[in-house]
């Protein structure tokens, strides 16, 4: 994904020079790219690299504070927190990537159609999106998972559903402002049908803001999934997952065993932070004026 | 209608209120679908794990689950109109009554947090926009990016660890009031207000101490989007042509900044508040669980654990209606500030 | 009164410092109106912002001085400057609607200035503001006091901006492109008003514009700027009859005026003989009773109310009118991007209005009717190179591939004068004139019989406009195309067109041979359009 992304950035901004220039001028974005690579590595190779089996209990070794043998300490049943935190990366990342990919595709199609043709399709879509947005989104996700059943797939569906409005609205707006743009009309004069104009000319121009949204959204989806498992939805113990580990660790925080909750919590935070930095960096590269 | 025609903004306000009707209808439809989407026999779920065949049948008839879906929907709507959200299995009470009892606790927490975060975020955003590149601008960027990355439940736990376990200055994170105090008489259900009305300042202070950590947790989370939007909106407003006109007319900095730029920047900020409410109400659930706060969020979490579906779906619907109401208030406020509303059809 | 010496302004950008104004010197007498003329990027607006010390972030006065009535504007404290702005020196801007605070009543915006400079108290502010509105000839001023900018027309907004600028009786008014974006008749009304007020109050003024014709009509003296420097200054007549600098000459040449030919817009050395174009007897396009009605929010909007005209084979027809007259809607219907509500469009005898616009992309006629769009930047896909853009119609409709395609693209690039090396560039790497050439190359790729030109030069500087107009004329002769030239500017239309159609409010008010309509207009509206256009002095005599 990052390869395509980089290529599209470079193309959009007039050559790789500009990309290198922006990255050099903004070390924070460079840092974000590095962190992103690290997270991907942990997700892909994590399970084969960790020193302990994340599920192996050892009652004799319970609640050990961080040490050389157990960098992040051990939990109440003696499992290695470090191994669990690393292994959890794959699950957390898969949930959010799957959810974001689903909402990206559904949102793009709905938003493009509504933005290009308008009319009653647009009106109906807007009503549906309004209704979804009328729920506090996390609460709706709770309701959906509670209704569909407490599984990881349903966490993905719920996260995807609450994200669809963001993509659909963004694409709709981006397509709508370009619907009558000169280049779209010129494309029709060149013999392109409406569908072709939409797919080949208008939609690709909406991709840069979409990429920013995807990046910011990945972070948010991770937070959302972790939040759901924190209140006991979706992932079940003893599976290693950041939200559930924080929830388990929360019981020990008042008695001072901080590492149980802090390490998974910190990792979660850093992952989300990375995606947000990445999103801001991409925004910078695509459109310096919108820097916030 | 004569009045409405003379006052286009009043007409806009009336039409805005009318617009929330289909949204409420949509919310009710989705809530209904959620209660019926349970895999398997919903009656079995609503009757609870301990139910036998007879009581499941009883529930089925009571909920009208033996009738066609469309008829079930009208029964559902009919019940809603009478304020009936069903019975909670765990508390044995009507869900509506449970929620009403616990709602003030949630509102007190959420509103306090929002007031705190607006009070901090808006000045921060303005300062960052007026002094780009300064330390306050950098601070704003860090706060904004870090703020949206904070998992609320984790922030809460960290704050408890630091202020309760390490420093010992915060009370134990269990509910709205330590047991040594007596609950103030219920007037609004907001302890701070009720205690103040009763003149019981000891209780007031006790309630405040309990409120600080959860409110700060929630405020940290909502701070970021508000500060971000304020900064962006101020930057946009400050680079607008009319600011140049105002400067060229020799108006004072104060007038340019607050009279011209900020008034215009306020509009997008108010719009963002809707989204912030959505986040805040969601995060509220997590914060309530962390701090054992007896609001509707922790009620829903407890209900989830014991598969008390009527309670969970009642909670979802209540939250949605609350949010629709908040959005309506925000939009009406917007109508009041922006003279263009009501003319936009031109 | 104002004495500027070696003024230099630079901007700090991400790629280092950029000099916008490079040491310019000039003087302004009391009661004088000075025009600063230049094309985009010449530093003319930056000069005015520097004088007011309201440069954008990153901009700073690097060197020189500007002395106004004994005060050094460069070194004065910010507090002094704030007292000067609005009371001593005022400014009016282009895009008047954006120049006003959108959510504040216009009356209050005038009061703000009056109160700031202690010209009014809380008690009499309202009366004084209404007086200021009356001074700029706003009818029913007391009612307009409570209006918001969005409720007013562009011309009315500019009057408000002028009222704000003049409320405190300043001695110097800087007008930065005050009429750009306004319709030609409004433009004249606004300019006449500004000049009348300046003269009546014996103020000095600096008029900044890209339009040499406009400046020469209203200014006592003109200063021509290019790349941050002054290339020439003098009185309008002298500047036109005997320009010294080559750039001024080029600018003077490129300014369209009555009785000149299209070639004379170019520098003398580029004036090749005009290529003749032949006009056939039969109609290529016959428009009959064409209407377009939209469903607006407050009832139906009649954009085009049954118009009829013909374009003969090889003929160029100009479609002229102000914004909102329906000329662009007409163009869109003719090019089959929009369906007509009723009427016929007979193209080579076939009614193409009968075919729905959405299916026309597949029609065999598609390649015969093409269009050059108003805004070259907007009409190019930002993600496609010049080559991809020109290739599109050739691939989709001409079914060219591989070597054939490459040859044809280079042929077209040569035809429109686009260097081959630019073919691999993206739109943002091309200049305005180059983008226009890419757009034209795409439009003529399939050698259409009929080409619609929708204000093809509206966004271009005059010197580039001159080149593009000449290019269009050459192409017409080489390819034997018929043109429909849509424009708001009769003088530009006349240069290229044989026949003119004047539209107002969705109807044709006058049509006829171009020369006849220009020299002897029948309809009062045509007369108004003609008289509102700036009239530059007669040209220098070319040896």
Structure summarized in a few sentences:
Chain A has 292 residues and is mainly alpha-helical.
Pick out its properties.
heterotrimer; A: 292 residues; mainly alpha; MetI-like fold; 11 helices; disordered N terminus; B: 346 residues; globular
Description:
- The complex is a heterotrimer of chains A (292), B (346) and C (543).
- By secondary structure, chain A is an all-alpha fold.
- Helix content of chain A is 76%, strand content 0%.
- Chain A contains 11 helices and no strands.
- Helices cover 75% and strands 0% of the residues of chain B.
- Among the domains of chain C are: 95-169, no CATH class; 283-374 and 451-532, Rossmann fold (3-Layer(aba) Sandwich).
- In chain C, strands 6-7-8-3-9-10 form a 6-stranded mixed beta sheet, sandwiched between helices.
- The chains are: A mainly alpha (292), B mainly alpha (346), C alpha/beta (543).
- At the A-B interface, helix 5, helix 6, helix 9, helix 10 and helix 11 of A face helix 2, helix 7, helix 8, helix 10 and helix 12 of B.
SSE series of chain A: HHHHHHHHHHH
Any idea what the shape of chain A is?
elongated
What is the second-level CATH architecture of the domain at 283-374 and 451-532 in chain C? 3-Layer(aba) Sandwich
Q: What is the H level of CATH, i.e. the homologous superfamily of the domain at 283-374 and 451-532 in chain C?
A: P-loop containing nucleotide triphosphate hydrolases
Question: Would you identify the regions of chain A where 5 or more consecutive residues have pLDDT less than 50?
Answer: 1-14, 288-292
Q: What class do helices, strands and sheet pairing of chain A give? A: mainly alpha
Helix content of chain A: over 70%
The tally of strands of chain A reads 0
What percent of residues of chain C adopt helix (DSSP H or I)?
25-40%
Q: Any idea of the CATH topology of chain A?
A: MetI-like fold
Biggest interface, chains and residue tallies: A-B, 52 and 62 residues
Helix segment tally of chain A: 11
Can you tell me the residue ranges of chain C where pLDDT is under 50 for at least 5 consecutive residues?
none
The CATH class of the domain at 283-374 and 451-532 in chain C is identified as Alpha Beta
CATH architectural category of chain A: Orthogonal Bundle
């Amino acid at each position: 994904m990052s390869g395509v992304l980089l290529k599209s950035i470079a193309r959009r901004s007039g050559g790789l020079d500009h990309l290198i220039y922006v990255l050099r001028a903004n070390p924070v974005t460079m840092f974000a790219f590095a962190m992103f690579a690290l997270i991907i590595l942990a997700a892909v190779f994590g399970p084969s690299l960790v020193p302990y089996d994340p599920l192996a209990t050892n009652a004799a070794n319970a609640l050990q504070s961080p040490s050389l043998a157990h960098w992040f300490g051990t939990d109440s049943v003696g499992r290695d927190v470090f191994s669990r935190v690393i292994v959890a990366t794959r699950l957390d990342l898969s949930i959010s990537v799957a959810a974001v990919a689903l909402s990206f595709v559904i949102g793009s199609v709905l938003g493009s159609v509504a933005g290009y043709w308008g009319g009653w399709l647009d009106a109906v879509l807007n009503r549906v999106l309004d209704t979804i947005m009328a729920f506090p989104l996390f609460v709706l996700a709770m309701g959906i998972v509670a209704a569909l059943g407490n599984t990881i797939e349903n966490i993905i569906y719920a996260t995807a559903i609450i994200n669809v409005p963001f993509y659909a609205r963004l694409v709709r707006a981006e397509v709508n402002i370009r619907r009558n743009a000169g280049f779209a009309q010129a494309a029709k004069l060149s013999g392109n049908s409406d569908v072709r104009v939409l797919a080949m000319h208008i939609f690709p121009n909406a991709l840069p803001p979409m990429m920013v949204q995807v990046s910011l959204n990945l972070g948010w989806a991770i937070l959302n999934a972790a939040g759901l498992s924190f209140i006991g939805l979706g992932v079940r113990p003893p599976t290693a997952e950041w939200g559930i580990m924080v929830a388990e660790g929360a019981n020990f925080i008042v008695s001072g065993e901080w590492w149980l909750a802090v390490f998974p919590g910190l990792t979660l935070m850093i992952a989300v932070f990375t995606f947000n930095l990445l999103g801001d960096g991409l925004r910078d590269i695509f459109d310096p004026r919108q820097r916030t | 209608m004569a009045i409405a025609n003379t006052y286009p903004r009043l007409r806009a306000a009336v039409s805005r209120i009318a617009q929330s009707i289909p949204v409420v209808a949509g919310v009710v439809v989705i809530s209904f679908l959620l209660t019926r989407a349970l895999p398997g026999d919903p009656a079995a779920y609503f009757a609870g794990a301990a139910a036998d065949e007879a009581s499941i049948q009883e529930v089925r008839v009571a909920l009208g689950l033996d009738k066609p879906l469309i008829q079930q929907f009208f029964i559902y709507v009919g019940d809603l109109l009478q304020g009936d959200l069903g019975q909670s299995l765990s508390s044995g009470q009507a869900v509506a009554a449970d929620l009403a009892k616990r709602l003030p606790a949630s509102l007190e927490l959420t509103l306090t947090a929002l007031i705190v975060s607006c009070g901090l975020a808006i000045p921060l955003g303005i300062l960052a926009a007026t002094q780009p590149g300064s330390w306050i601008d950098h601070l704003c960027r860090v706060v904004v990016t870090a703020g949206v990355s904070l998992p609320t439940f984790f922030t809460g736990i960290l704050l408890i660890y630091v202020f309760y376990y390490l420093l010992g200055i915060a009370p134990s994170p269990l509910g709205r009031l330590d047991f040594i105090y007596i609950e103030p008489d219920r007037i609004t259900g907001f302890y701070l207000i009720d205690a103040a009305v009763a003149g019981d300042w000891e209780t007031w202070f006790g309630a405040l101490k309990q409120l600080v950590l959860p409110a700060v947790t929630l405020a940290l989370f909502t701070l970021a989007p508000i500060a971000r939007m304020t900064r962006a909106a101020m930057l946009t407003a400050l680079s607008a042509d009319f600011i140049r006109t105002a400067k060229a007319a020799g108006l004072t900095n104060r007038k340019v900044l607050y009279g011209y730029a900020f008034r215009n920047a306020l509009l997008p900020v108010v719009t963002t508040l809707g989204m912030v409410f959505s986040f805040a109400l969601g995060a509220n659930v997590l914060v309530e669980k962390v701090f054992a706060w007896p609001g509707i969020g922790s009620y829903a979490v407890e209900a989830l654990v014991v598969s008390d579906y009527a309670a969970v779906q009642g909670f979802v619907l209540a939250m949605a209606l609350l949010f629709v109401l908040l959005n309506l208030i925000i939009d009406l406020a917007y109508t009041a500030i922006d003279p263009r509303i009501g003319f936009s059809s031109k | 009164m104002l004495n500027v010496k070696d003024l230099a302004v630079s901007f700090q950008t991400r790629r280092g410092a950029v000099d916008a104004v490079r040491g310019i010197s000039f003087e302004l007498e009391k009661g004088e109106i000075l025009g600063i003329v230049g094309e985009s990027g010449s530093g003319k607006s930056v000069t005015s912002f520097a004088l007011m010390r309201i440069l954008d972030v990153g901009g700073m006065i690097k060197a020189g001085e500007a002395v106004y009535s004994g005060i050094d504007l460069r070194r004065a404290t910010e507090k002094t400057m704030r007292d000067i702005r609005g009371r001593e020196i005022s400014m009016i801007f282009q895009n008047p609607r954006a120049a006003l605070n959108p959510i504040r009543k216009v009356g209050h915006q005038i009061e703000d200035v009056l109160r700031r400079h202690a010209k009014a108290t809380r008690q009499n502010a309202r009366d004084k503001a209404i007086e200021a509105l009356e001074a700029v000839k706003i009818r029913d001023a007391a009612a307009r006091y409570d209006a918001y900018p969005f409720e007013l027309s562009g011309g009315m907004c500019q009057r408000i901006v002028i009222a704000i600028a003049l409320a405190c009786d300043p001695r110097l008014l800087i007008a930065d492109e005050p009429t750009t974006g306004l319709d030609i008749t409004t433009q004249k009304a606004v300019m006449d008003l500004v000049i009348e007020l300046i003269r009546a109050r014996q103020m000095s003024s600096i008029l900044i514009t890209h339009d040499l014709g406009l400046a020469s009509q209203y200014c006592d003296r003109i200063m021509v700027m290019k790349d941050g420097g002054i290339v020439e200054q003098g009185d309008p007549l002298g500047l036109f009859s005997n320009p010294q600098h080559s750039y001024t000459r080029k600018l003077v040449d490129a300014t369209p005026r009555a009785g000149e030919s299209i070639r004379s817009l170019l520098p003398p050395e580029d004036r090749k003989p005009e290529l003749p174009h032949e006009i056939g007897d039969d109609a290529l396009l016959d428009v009959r009773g064409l209407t377009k009605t939209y469903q607006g929010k407050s009832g139906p909007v009649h954009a085009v109310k049954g118009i009829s005209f013909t374009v003969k084979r090889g003929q160029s027809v100009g479609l002229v009118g102000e914004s909102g007259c329906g000329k662009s809607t007409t163009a869109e219907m003719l090019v089959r991007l929009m369906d007509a509500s009723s009427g016929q469009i007979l193209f080579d005898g076939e009614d193409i209005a009968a075919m729905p616009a959405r299916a026309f992309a597949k029609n065999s006629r598609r390649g015969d009717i093409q269009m050059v769009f108003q805004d070259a930047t907007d009409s190019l896909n930002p993600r496609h190179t010049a080559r991809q853009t020109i290739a599109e119609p050739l691939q989709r409709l001409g079914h060219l591939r591989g070597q054939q395609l490459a040859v044809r693209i280079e042929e077209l690039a040569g035809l429109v004068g686009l260097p081959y090396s630019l073919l691999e560039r993206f739109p943002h790497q091309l200049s305005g004139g180059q983008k226009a050439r890419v757009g034209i190359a795409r439009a003529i790729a399939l050698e259409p019989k009929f080409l619609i030109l929708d204000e093809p030069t509206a966004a271009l500087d005059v010197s580039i406009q001159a080149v593009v107009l000449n290019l269009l004329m050459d192409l017409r002769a080489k390819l034997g195309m018929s043109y429909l030239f849509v424009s708001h500017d009769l003088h530009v239309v006349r240069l290229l067109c044989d026949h003119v159609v004047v539209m107002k409010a969705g109807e044709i008010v006058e049509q006829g041979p171009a020369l006849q309509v220009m020299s002897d207009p029948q309809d009062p509206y045509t007369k108004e359009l003609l008289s509102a256009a700036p009239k530059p002095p007669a040209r220098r005599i070319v040896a």
